[in-house]
Design a protein that fits this description.
The structure holds 2 protein chains of 2 kinds.
Chain A: H1 4-58, E1 78-83, H2 93-105, E2 112-117, H3 119-127, E3 131-136, H4 145-160, E4 166-176, E5 179-188, H5 198-201, E6 213-215, H6 218-294
Parallel strand pairs in A: 1-2, 1-4, 2-3
Antiparallel strand pairs in A: 4-5
Helix pairs in contact in A: 1-6, 2-3, 4-6
Chain B: E1 3-9, E2 12-19, E3 21-26, E4 29-33, E5 40-53, E6 56-70, E7 73-78, E8 81-83, H1 89-104, H2 111-134
Parallel strand pairs in B: 1-7
Antiparallel strand pairs in B: 1-2, 3-4, 3-5, 5-6, 6-7, 6-8
The chains are: A alpha/beta, B alpha+beta.
């Protein structure tokens, strides 16, 4: 058994750790509230925008409507935008995203390029020797659309110049404080009936819709909305991911605090035993000494 | 017979409801949308959206955006939008003054900022015009007392 002094140090350090984790939990709790507000505020717009894009894509002859909607015959390169956090200590949050990405895209027939959003994701992807062509880290908390629109634009540019033939987005969908789901969404060319939450918002079964009339004209309007709404999906994904990250960190830190408390309890018990044993031994020594003198 | 109307701006849902007619400031001029309208996709100019339901009219300012019309639903994706009842006149006026002062300084050093201020000025002018034209007299205007 360890000495009393060692145990005292150990107890102290565990208590210190639990203070840090408790502080982190409180910080995350306030951040998660802000992040949830941000994500729910923009969700209506983002889902509506996605719906409009889908309606556009549902029209007959979508391949000729706009180059961003056209399915390419051969997929020679795939681009994946991976959204993670900048920091660790968020439970399995970051590694879940990377593990999901690996299981989804490692078997991909075409070579895969990655755009990493968040430092943790970048590090983990590079460690797995993935081809990371761009990284965006140190995003502000609750970013505005202008802060992150360059990410979406980069993906659209790569697609337009033919460097890649399809673009996917991997992020963590925020469902509730205790549930976050890693999700993949095909951004370009737009996939009908794709995965994601949009479906829940759809009010009617989207039948084959008639061709639109466009004002001012088709090219102008599609040129404007398709890249913009695509970038918007990236923005929304980042907000969802940030809310998920803070929620995951909060839960992880709460668990850590609870564990530390338990550990302190166990250690304290052991320490008390050692201390009492030492005192008992001391008394026995004194009593023994006194008896020896009395004889 | 009504048509569903949903106006969302980037940060919130501004209006949803079943209405009789929606008037939009389309790229090619004002367009009134009735139920069973043919599908249209249009960009929006700076202007006014009017929504009428059984004689009652609600008026919104919109600072550009996109509208999608389907036979049973009008979806307005506005860059900025608000009900004129919730426009804060004193704030809009302050914003206009700020923008005018900045723009009056002449040659911009910072082009981005210049454009931002120009857009801000257009928005405040739009809001103030809308309030002046559409808000009923006798209605309390916040900040006017």
């Amino acid at each position: 058994m360890a000495s009393a002094r060692e145990m005292r140090l150990r107890i102290k350090s565990v208590k210190n750790i639990s203070q840090v984790t408790r502080a982190l939990e409180t910080v995350s709790a306030s951040k998660v509230r802000k992040a949830i507000n941000a994500v729910t505020a923009t969700r209506a717009y983002a889902t509506k925008a996605w719906q409009v894009l889908k309606h556009v894509a549902e029209q007959p002859g979508r391949d000729s409507l706009h180059p961003l909607l056209a399915e390419r015959k051969a997929v020679n390169n795939t681009l994946v935008v991976v959204v993670t956090g900048d920091r660790g200590l968020a439970g399995a949050y970051n590694s879940n995203v990377i593990r999901f990405t690996a299981s989804r895209f490692d078997p991909n027939p075409a070579p895969v390029k990655y755009i990493a959003v968040g430092r943790k994701g970048r590090d983990l992807l590079i460690r797995r020797r993935k081809n990371v062509i761009a990284e965006f880290s140190n995003l502000p908390a609750a970013p505005t659309f202008a802060d992150v629109s360059s990410i979406g634009r980069l993906a659209v540019d790569e697609f337009m110049k033919g460097a890649v033939d399809e673009v996917y987005l991997v992020y963590t969908d925020f469902i509730s404080m205790s549930r976050q789901v890693t999700t993949v969404k095909k951004l370009l060319p737009l996939e009908l009936g794709g995965e994601g939450r949009v479906e829940e918002y759809e009010q009617k079964p989207a039948g084959p819709s008639a061709a639109y009339e466009y004002e001012p004209d088709m090219r102008v309007i599609l040129d404007e909305i398709i890249p913009r709404f695509t970038a918007l999906q990236v923005y929304q994904a980042i907000l969802e991911s940030q809310a998920s990250e803070h929620a995951a960190r909060m839960i992880a830190m709460r668990n850590a605090t609870d564990n530390a408390k338990e550990l302190v309890g166990a250690l304290q018990l052991a320490y008390n035993k050692v201390r009492q044993q030492a005192i008992t031994n001391d008394i026995l020594d004194i009593v023994g000494g006194a008896e020896a003198l009395a004889q | 017979m009504t048509i569903r109307c949903e106006i969302v701006s980037q940060d919130r849902t501004v209006f949803t409801g079943d209405v009789d007619i929606v008037v939009l400031p389309g790229a090619a001029g004002e367009m009134g949308i009735l139920p069973k309208h043919a599908p249209v996709l249009t960009t929006l100019k700076f202007g006014i959206i009017k929504v009428r339901k059984s004689g009652k009219e609600e008026i919104f300012t919109v600072a550009g955006g996109v509208a999608e019309v389907q036979p049973d639903i009008v979806t307005v994706l506005a860059d900025r939008a608000e009900n004129i009842q919730e426009i804060d006149v004193s704030r809009a006026e302050a914003a206009r003054r700020r923008a005018e002062e900045y723009l009056a300084k002449g040659t911009p050093v910072d082009t981005d900022r210049y454009l931002v201020m120009e857009a801000a000025l257009r928005r405040s002018n739009l809001r103030l015009d809308a309030v002046r034209r559409y808000r009923k007299s006798g209605m309390r205007i916040p900040g006017s007392e």
